[in-house]
Each structure stands twice: as structure tokens, then as C-alpha cells.
Please model this.
Amino acid sequence: MLVIALVDRVGSGLWASVSVLYFTYVSGLSLAEVGTLAALSGAIGIAGAPLGGRLADHLPLTRVLIALQLLRALASFALLTTDDYTLLLAVSAVGALGDRAANVLTKLYATRIAGPDRVRYQALSRTLANAGWALGGLAAAAALALGTATAYRWLLAGDALSFVAAALLTLRCGEPPSPSRIVTGSRTGAQPRKPANPWRDPTYLAYVATDTVLFLDDAVFKIGLPLAIAHSTDAPHGLAPLLLVLNNVLVVALQVPLARFGTSSEAARRLLVPLSAAFALGGTTMALSPAGGTLTAVLLLTAAATAFTVAEMLHATISWELSVALAPDSAQGTYLGVHGLAQSAQRSIGPLAVTAAIATGSLGWTVFGAAIALTCGIQHRIVRDRLPRPSLSVAAVTVSEH
Model:
């Protein structure tokens, strides 16, 4: 599964950095059409997370994951066959559904197979995923030097082939045990308990709502920093891609070492305190960046990127652990599917939040960082009484490593 994560992200790196350019120069869409296509397909894709989680509670996880990888491959290949806007929208929406569902299922697989080592697994997975993004991005940059429609098509084909490779590799993965299917398939005389429903679980829904806010670091790197550099500071425009490289390098170097501080549910909850400090520091340095000259702006923006990267790594560890620890074993897939909505919703909310921060200047970025820091405190309180005692992440007996 770690190899699959690398292969998948190499393909995504090939396509993500050029998708807008492909639709503009190869498909001939206008700026408004490209924006509408991205927004609508992303909105439809939100349904993929709960749908994938629900399927995984009732069907073999690896088979569902293979089907989703093949669905993503078909969607990518289908984009090569048409320039019709309606078809492009429909195919992009199908690909987004498969993408969000596959993300939830890979997390669920790790939860079931890695057991108490799931936080370390998550750290290794994120490290390889970031390395894959970087490799794919470098290959895309080299291909774009050609500046031809054929180069764009080959990048899209490479993305599609990465999904085919991921599906073939998944065939070699063993099916992890599923508590939900064991409960439903019991042949004892007792009536099986009805699986818990996350939509009727106010604590979990409140946790998901707060986690949506904590995922805003993603919008900072994709939209906030580039726009701030272009419109609000004296920093050179070339700083934007360098800060993205810095983000990738820090995640690859530090995600695994930082994961050791969140190897239990209580430890993950305690990490919300330094996480709030990282968000507050990131917002403050962004607020100060327009005040000085070029050098001051570069230094403060670099400090902001570092702070938000630390926040990203801490939140990745916290979110992975708490989303599982708060979910009952009998409905893990369904619960993690609902949690997947947090990241999907952030993709719609995030651009609005960071552009509002840029538009309102220093005060906007200060409020941005402080609001997320406050949300960390709220989440700290929400999950306090719900976490298992003892923590699910601490094994009572020695277990063999996977």
C-alpha cells in the first residue's frame, strides 16, 4: 500500500499541476468554463467520501478499492477522447467521486491492517505521497518545456496509467479483517446490533466540523501564499514555487519523526495545543509580510510557510488518529467516510477564506490564524470525553508488526 501511495501520487503530480492548462490550451475552454468545471466536479466529488466508506463496511475493501482505481483510470482516459464541455464536466465529476472515495478507503485499509502502528504508517504514507507529488511535478515541468498539446496528453495518460498500476498492485494486497462484516455476518442466535450512524452522532459531527477548519492549511499553500506574493508583498513571484518545494521537503524530512508524538489518542489530543500555536504564528507572520521591503517579505513568508507546514504535519497526525479513535469498530468505514467530508468541504471553503484574508490585509491574516487556533481549542474540548480509555492506539498485549 505504501508503494501504491507513491505510484498514485506520481500520477497525480503529473496531472494536478497542468490540468488547468490542459483544459485551456488542449480542450479550448474559457477561464470561466475551467473554473466552473473545477468547482462543479469538486462539489459532486464530495459525495465520494461517505459513499466509499459505506461500501467498505459491506463489501471487501480491496475489491472496492480496485474498482475505484479503475474508475479513476477510465475517467482520465475519457478526458482524452472529447473536448465537449458537458462530457468533460461529467467525466471530471466521476473522476472526483472516485478520487475522494479512494482516499477514504486507503485510510481505512491502513486502519484495519496497521492496528496500533497506524500513526507511523500514516507518517510513512504521507512522506512517500509528498515524494510522489514532487517527482510527478518535476516530470510535468520537464514535459511542459515542449509546449505542445501532445505533451499535455501524455501527462494525462501518465496519470491514467498510474491508476491502472495502483489497481494491479492492490490485487497483491491481503484483505484486512472487517469488524462491521463480522458483526453483520454472525450466525449466533443473538440479533446483530445495528451499526452506529455518524449522521446521528453529534459529537462526531462537531469533530468533523472543527476538522474542516483545521484543513485550511491546504488552501494557504495552493492559493493564499501565491496570491499574497503576487498582490500584497514585495517578494519576487518566483518565491511561490520555492515555498511549495520547502513544504514538500519539510514533510518528507519531518513527518515520520513528528508522528512519534501522536501514537495514542490522548497524545494526539495533546498535540492540538502546539498545533494552535503553529496556526497563530503562521497567521501573524503572513500579516507582517507586507510591512517591510523585499528581504523582509521573503523572510516572513518563508517563516509563514514553515509554520503552516508544521501545522500541516501535526494536523495530519492528529486527524488520522482521532478520526479513527472516535469511530466505533462496527461502522469504521461509514464514520471515516463522513470525516472525509471535512477535507472535501475545505476545498470549497478554503479559497474563500484565504482570499478574504488577503483582501482585508494584516487584520485578515491575524484573524485567520487566530480563528483556526481557537478551533483547535474547541476540538480539544469536544473529543475529551469521547476518547477510549485506555487508548485504542496502545495495545494491551504485544502484537506482531505487519
Remarks:
- The longest helix spans residues 294-325.
- The chain has 17 helices and no strands.
